[in-house]
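Bench notes, afternoon.
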Amino acid sequence: MQFYNLLEKIVRDDETHAKWLNTLSFMENAGARKISACEHPVKVSLIQLKHAVEEHRHAYYLKKQIGKLDPSFCKTYESTELLAPVATRQYLHSLDIKACRYLQNAFHLTTEDLKYAAYLFVTYAIEVRADELYPVYQDILTKISSKIMVRSIILEEEGHLEEMINQLNDFAEDWQIHADQILKIEKNLHDQWVNAITEEVSQLNHV
């Protein structure tokens, strides 16, 4: 409910809404770059390439939506054009580091295998989050008859989650036990991110 109320406040102001879209775009772009960084030098699956491409496309799509609010808003990913820039930049990076630490302790992997495991579990956690976040956002956009739409992203993220589960089934029989631990790490970081955005938006509303 806190998140729903936060998004309702965000979409009321075009500049804040543009920053929100830009923040989502930044995170999709960061996710795509992390997927590419996790690639094995030679053993790169079709599905991994597909994910990187689609996350990049989401970043582009969200950035393009900003033009429907005002083409002059949010040209870059500079801190002044993001919501809660410090928490936003730390979110995925911290998740990656903490997940790698957990996975190394759990599976004792080589460097290349750890990169692949991180790709699987971190992407899974992000897709679970996306499956919650985007439908709530779309619901609010529909309610206010906004020109902004994220339905196409919702459909692709649902597909991603299914694909990640299939890959995790191949990775380890007991993957869900470990995924649940990564989800706990992600929830903590997500809560920090939402709290930082909430604080910033409440300050903007007081100006």
